[in-house]
Amino acid sequence: MRPDRAYFGEKDWQQLQVIERMVADLLLPLEIVGIETVREADGLAMSSRNRFLSAAERATAPLLNRVLRDTAKGLAAGEVSVLDRARGVLADAGFGVDYFALVDGPTLAPIDTPTPGARLIAAARLGTVRLLDNIAAV
């Protein structure tokens, strides 16, 4: 089977970038299409893992997306310590932050200031559940 297109969700941005790079490097005749993250009404990225959150954790979980959005606004306003502040807000709310970073979207290289295509990416644990999310930084 030789498909013309393959669809991947943007929720796991890093995986999407690895797949796009692999297709390009191997010269595969395939278009990779990123699909916008589907979210619950409160902003939490939909995931099968969400069912493992306790009621209290589920109530806290949407903070991850809110902090991502607030951080993007702070970066746009030129705030210097916005990434450190975001990590602190999440930690204070009970998240175990694995990473919260500004990266070049395609290469995933860490960057200091937002550029076109930049992404804010995050992985944080609430209890035993590891939540992933990301948004465009500009």
What do these coordinates show?
This protein has 4 helices and 5 strands; from the N terminus they run βαβαααβββ. It has 2 domains: 1-36, no CATH class; 40-136, 2-Layer Sandwich (Pantoate--beta-alanine Ligase, Chain: A,domain 2), CATH 3.30.1300.10. The chain is globular. It has 138 residues and is α+β, with helices and mostly antiparallel strands. α3 packs antiparallel against α4 (82-92). It is 32% helix and 26% strand. A hairpin with a 2-residue loop joins β4 and β5. The chain has a 3-stranded antiparallel β-sheet with strand order 3-4-5, with helices on one face. Strands 1-2 form a two-stranded parallel ribbon.
Mind sketching the topology for me?
Elements: E1 5-9, H1 13-25, E2 31-35, H2 55-60, H3 63-76, H4 82-92, E3 96-104, E4 118-126, E5 129-136
Parallel strand pairs: 1-2
Antiparallel strand pairs: 3-4, 4-5
Helix pairs in contact: 3-4
Strand tally: 5
Helix content: 25-40%
Q: What is the end-to-end distance? A: 38 Å
Which structural category fits the helices and strands? Answer: alpha+beta
Q: Which value, in Å, is the CA radius of gyration? A: 16 Å
CATH-derived architecture of the largest domain = 2-Layer Sandwich
Report the principal-axis shape.
Answer: globular
Main sheet attributes: strand count, strand direction, barrel closure: 3 strands, antiparallel
Strand order of the largest sheet: 3-4-5
